[in-house]
Write a structure and sequence with these properties.
The protein has a single domain, classed as Sandwich (Jelly Rolls), CATH 2.60.120. It has one helix and nine strands; from the N terminus they run E-E-E-E-E-E-E-H-E-E. Strands 1, 2, 4, 7 and 9 form a five-stranded antiparallel sheet that branches. The protein has a four-stranded antiparallel sheet with strand order 3-8-5-6. The longest helix is centred in the C-terminal third of the chain and has 14 residues.
Amino acid sequence: MERKISEWFDSGDVACDIGLGDSPTRTTLAEVPTDWQALVPLSAYMEVGGTVASGETVSISIKVILDDGTEIEIASYSVTGGTGSSTVGADTIMANMMDNARAAGVSLEGRRITSVVADVKTSATSTSATAKARVQGIRT
């Protein structure tokens, strides 16, 4: 059976651990499967729920990991003293990838995206907040 050239992928809603004291905890949202070459994220969803204390800031950073280990942020969301969510589309993801790669002096030429991760943290030393993230796109 011949493999398709590309197909959609959807991580589904992934519960993310929250790092305390501004130290992020990483959760893998998607990895390129065996027999595929790369991921192309086209949308990202980030949500903070539970109880976020007054003055507490919860931050979610979604990053792509390239085949050489380089990390580039493609979407982010922060909320202070409350809950909420954000959806980011392909135009913003691609602009963020270009801007953040340029700022870091990284060329994307010839590199593949092998995984998408979420780094989540809170400014507090303990929290009752929750976080989840989702990424959708194409695998090639």
